[in-house]
């Protein structure tokens, strides 16, 4: 069977099946694995791969931006669990032609995005194309990790920030479009995503927050993961999606569909979470975009269209 017909998630399911885990350990299927330590805390583990020409174009991205992004996309998975990062590991395959100074700038970006989370190890090798794998360890109080599986009918669905900016930034890069102030802002959102660690931590301490994940493939795909894991459906009102002024202006210029970009382009790294309507979210950047209902799948309100998220295969 070829990879396109089985798809990324069919393939992951194939990898997952037939394995039994030690009691209390949660493995494949959420933003991080969760391993109880027995001292009142759980260890969280996540890893992500960034490949030249697949995830970035080496001649366009600066080493600082690439280092930042490599750390941030992993920290975002710790944020999605409501965890605190403890340490990271960086493995890197380097093509000929990159300099020691390039590596210094990469590490400067990596450190800046990591904040207080130290780099604890990794591996270095030569490679034909630049290949970066980061792993991050985190922790949270035992049993308090925010999972994809807890959404309940009646929950409000929220995101922590504007959607579609990163995907629009990528279009500008790939299509070689002019980089005015708005375009540069969108490219910055693509190259320098912010892991929503403080928001994740707040959410994990709030009674009534039932599920969370980070948005790496667009909500059309990512919300489906929450729905499947929780055995529920959702209504999303596309008129309530937070769209930045920059995305509106650039989309007007090129005739782009802001809603399609907001729901089906990836790498926003905002949090997507669900909570009971009574819960007061104590930070400003939360936008209600819909609600959880009985059933399965997403009903899109305010549009006649149906969307699917980014597909890797
Ligand atoms: P995320 O976007 O949050 O990084 P993914 O969609 O990449 O998550 O992966 C979904 C789940 O599948 C995660 O739990 C991840 O650890 C797991 N996974 C992905 N690829 C593999 C693999 N090759 N082997 C084992 N687990 C994998
Ligand atoms: Mg994730």
Structure description:
The protein has 9 helices and 11 strands. A hairpin with a 4-residue loop joins strand 1 and strand 2. The chain starts with a helix and ends in a 12-residue tail after the last strand. By secondary structure, it is an alpha+beta fold. The mean pLDDT is 96. The chain has 2 domains: 3-141, PurM-like, N-terminal domain (60s Ribosomal Protein L30, Chain: A); 156-301, Phosphoribosyl-aminoimidazole Synthetase, Chain A, domain 2 (Alpha-Beta Complex), CATH 3.90.650.10. The chain has helices spanning 3-16, 63-80, 100-114, 165-175, 181-191, 197-204, 219-230, 245-254, 258-264, and strands at 33-36, 41-51, 84-94, 119-126, 131-141, 156-159, 209-214, 233-237, 271-275, 287-293, 297-301. The chain has a 6-stranded mixed β-sheet with strand order 7-9-6-10-8-11, sandwiched between helices. It has a 5-stranded mixed β-sheet with strand order 1-2-5-3-4, covered by helices on one side. Helix 2 packs parallel to helix 3 and helix 5 crosses helix 8 (245-254). Residues 31, 77, 80, 213-214, 216 line the site of magnesium ion (MG).
Record keyword descriptors for this entry.
alpha+beta; Phosphoribosyl-aminoimidazole Synthetase, Chain A, domain 2; binds adenosine-5'-diphosphate; 313 residues; five-stranded mixed beta sheet; 2 domains; binds magnesium ion; 9 helices; 60s Ribosomal Protein L30, Chain: A; globular
Task: Compute the number of helices.
Answer: 9
The total of beta strands comes to 11
Radius of gyration: 19 Å
3D shape: globular
The CATH superfamily of the largest domain is PurM-like C-terminal domain
CATH architecture descriptor name of the largest domain: Alpha-Beta Complex
Portion of residues within helices: 25-40%
Question: Please, what is the average pLDDT?
Answer: 96
Q: Name every ligand kind in the structure.
A: adenosine-5'-diphosphate, magnesium ion
- What is the distance, rounded to the nearest whole angstrom, between the alpha carbons of the first and last residues? 13 Å
Which structural category do the helix and sheet elements fall into? Answer: alpha+beta
Largest sheet: 6 strands, mixed
What is the helix/strand order?
A: HEEHEHEEEHHHEHEHHEEE
Strand order, biggest sheet?
7-9-6-10-8-11
- Specify the oligomeric state: single chain
CATH topology of the largest domain: Phosphoribosyl-aminoimidazole Synthetase, Chain A, domain 2
How many individual domains? Answer: 2
Strand content: 15-25%
Poorly predicted ranges (pLDDT <50, ≥5 residues)? none
CATH first level of the largest domain: Alpha Beta
């Amino acid at each position: 069977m070829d990879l396109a017909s089985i798809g990324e998630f069919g393939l992951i399911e194939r990898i997952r099946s037939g394995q039994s885990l030690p009691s209390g350990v949660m493995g494949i299927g959420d933003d991080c694995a969760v391993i109880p330590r027995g001292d009142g805390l759980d260890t969280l583990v996540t890893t992500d791969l960034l490949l030249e020409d697949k995830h970035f174009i080496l001649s366009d991205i600066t080493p600082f931006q690439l280092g930042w992004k490599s750390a941030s996309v992993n920290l975002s998975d710790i944020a999605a669990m409501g965890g605190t990062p403890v340490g990271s590991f960086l493995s890197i395959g380097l093509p000929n032609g990159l300099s020691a100074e390039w590596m210094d700038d990469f590490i400067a970006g990596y450190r800046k995005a990591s904040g207080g989370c130290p780099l604890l190890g990794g591996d270095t090798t030569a490679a034909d194309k630049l290949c970066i794998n980061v792993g991050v360890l985190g922790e949270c109080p035992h049993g308090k990790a925010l999972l994809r599986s807890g959404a309940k009918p009646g929950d409000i669905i929220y995101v922590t920030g504007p959607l579609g900016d990163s995907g629009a930034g990528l279009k500008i890069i790939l299509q070689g479009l002019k980089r005015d102030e708005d375009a540069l802002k969108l490219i910055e959102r693509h190259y320098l995503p912010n892991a929503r660690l403080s928001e994740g931590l707040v959410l994990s301490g709030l009674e009534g927050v039932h599920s969370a994940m980070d948005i790496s493939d667009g909500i059309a795909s990512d919300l489906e993961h929450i729905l499947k894991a929780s055995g529920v459906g959702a209504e999303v009102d596309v008129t309530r999606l937070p769209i930045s002024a920059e995305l509106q202006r650039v989309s007007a210029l090129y005739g782009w569909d802001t809603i399609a970009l907001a729901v089906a382009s990836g790498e926003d790294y905002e949090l997507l979470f669900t909570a009971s309507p009574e819960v007061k979210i104590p930070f400003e950047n939360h936008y209600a975009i819909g609600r959880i209902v009985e059933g399965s799948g997403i009903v899109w309100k305010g549009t006649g269209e149906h969307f699917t998220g980014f597909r890797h295969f």
